[in-house]
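Researcher: I've been going back and forth with a colleague about how Ribosome-recycling factor might be arranged in three dimensions. Neither of us has a model we trust, so I'd like an independent prediction. The organism is Paenirhodobacter enshiensis, in case that matters for your notes. Sequence below.
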Amino acid sequence: MADEFEIDTDDLQRRMDGAMASLKTEFASLRTGRASASILEPVMVDAYGSMTPINQVGTVNVPEPRMVTINVWDKGLVNKVEKAIRESGLGINPQTNGTIIMLPIPELNEERRRELTKVAAQYAESTRVAIRNVRRDGMDQVKKAKAAGMSEDDVKFWEGEVDDLTKKNIALVDKALEHKQAEIMQV
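Model: Here is an independent structure prediction for Ribosome-recycling factor. You can compare it with whatever you and your colleague have in mind.
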């Protein structure tokens, strides 16, 4: 009887994993004072009539801990790439040398570090909300199965499974946030 009322926990886990992947991407875009090619991921360049990610108009390298370089393939796009970086809000001042754009990563001050930890906390909270929404969908599936004749024991079992899945994923979000905040505050 229980088999016909199975709740798809794999689908719920996949959706929660998607929320975690999104959080990791958002965390990667936060600048921590160390050079990382991922800080340029959200920056788009107006190239050839469409908005294009920087990594599709040049090679992004991290030659040293406080420097990111972009070797722009098309010389005509150098100024557009430089402009996109200036307007991105990253707080980085690009320096151009031919087709190579150098981005020296400045040391973060204490106030900026605190602001970034708050931004990281906001990203984590939006991920927790997404996970809770998936939990709500799982609980709705359990309610529908209960209305269709699922036994009380099975209802309790599946509610427990969905709750355990939710708690496990929220703990992962909390751990990722703690790690990112420690990384940001590290001088």
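Researcher: What would you highlight for our discussion?
Model: I'd start with this: Residues 8-28+109-185 form a domain with the Topoisomerase I; Chain A, domain 4 fold (CATH 1.10.132.20). After that, consider the following. DSSP finds four helices and six strands in the chain.
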